[in-house]
Amino acid sequence: MAKILVCDKVSQKLIDGIQQMGHEVLYKTGMDEDELVKTVPGFNAMVVRSATKVTEKVIDAGLGSLKVIIRAGVGIDNIKHEYAKSKGIDVRNTPAASSPSVAELAIAHMFSVYRFVARSTWRLRKGDDFKKIKKESQGHELFGKTLGIIGIGRIGREVAWRAHALGMKIIAHDPYITDPGLDYVEMVSLDDLLARADIITLHVPKTDKPIIGREEIARMKDGAVIINTARGGVVDEEALLEALNSGKLWGAGIDVWENEPNINPELMNHPLVSATPHLGATTSEAQDRIGEEVLKIIKEYFG
Ligand code: NAD
Q1: Which of 4, 46, 186, 232 gives 258 a disulfide partner, CB atoms 3.0 to 4.6 angstroms apart?
Q2: In ligand 1, which atom is closest to the CA atom of 204?
Q3: How is the chain split into domains, by residue range?
Q4: What is the domain class of 3-97+284-302 according to CATH?
């Protein structure tokens, strides 16, 4: 029997599944570093999503018992994974389980920005005149537009086929992939993508410095849209704000932010922004698939 510490909200099916395998579970969310350091000793596995920060201190507290840290999701940037590995603790994730959900949210933000979905809801609720909103909300169709996908991995490809089905032309940039295996995707340089795309959506791992900053925005079409469901910081938020205020960009769809959960209020309140609080993988279907993947990993380690 292993001892499994589950630190973020997961599907109940996952908790039940671990118990049915005969392992002991402590399911406790919202722990800060101090509480984690007190709690982790004696546990053999930790299961986290993106909220729990697995710092060096937390890893040190698990030395002797902790064998694996499982990220129920994709990005492992909230885990000091290099440090964990250096201490002999594996870090695993569930890379494909949430891809359809994230792709659908990226498309949802495209519709939301192009058709004023979020903005009209907000204006109607605050009592703006119905006819005035209608007059000021002439949108665009996605049909016929060029979508620029930066990062054509698992999620990028899921976005590509959906956008293709909507009648969009797809161009993509990825320094590590020359052929994504989709004949309707044209691979281009970043410069070409910036110059040609009506909407740019990012599906890359977290980067040290932004992929889209002031210079890149300047090279984009006037009236272009940026969608970020990848990670906060891959788009420079200050540069994005400036471009929204100057009218260079038509709008932005943002699911992931610098400094979550203390996000930039100016950006979050901006009328041209469709905003969600890191909801990419937050569907029942994704959480069930993630749960199944986590159970497989636990079985692999502890039987
Ligand atoms: P993936 O590894 O399958 O694909 C990432 C792609 O980005 C790869 O093809 C890689 O070659 C490419 N890439 C790396 N650096 C690049 C660069 N500088 N320019 C262009 N391309 C580059 O990953 P994925 O599963 O598709 O996930 C993509 C992102 O989505 C990750 O950042 C992940 O954390 C994020 N994500 C967000 C949510 C959410 O809740 N919003 C949920 C899941 C994943």
Answers
A1: 232
A2: 7
A3: 3-97+284-302, 99-275
A4: alpha beta
**Options 119, 278, 289, 293, the catalytic residue:** 278
Closest CA to 199 of 164, 223, 216: 223
Taking the C-alpha atoms of residue 74 and residue 148, their distance in angstroms, rounded to an integer, is 22
Strand order in the sheet with 68-71: 24-27, 3-6, 45-48, 68-71, 90-93
Q: pTM for this structure?
A: 0.91
pLDDT digits (tens, 9 = 90+) for 210-248: 999 999 999 999 999 999 999 999 999 999 999 999 999
Catalytic residue list contains 231: yes
Residues with CB under 6 A from ligand 1: 73-75, 95, 98-99, 102, 150-156, 173-177, 203-206, 211, 229-231, 255-256, 278, 280-281
Whose Cα sits closest to atom 9 in ligand 1? 153
Identify whether the C-beta of residue 183 lies closer than 8 Å to the C-beta of residue 161.
no
65 CA to middle of ligand 1, Å?
Answer: 32
Best CATH choice for the domain 99-275 from the list 1.10.10.10, 3.30.1130.10, 3.40.50.720, 3.40.50.10780: 3.40.50.720
* Tokens of residue 128, six digits: 């703006």
Q: pLDDT tens digit string along 98-125? A: 999 999 999 999 999 999 999 999 999 9
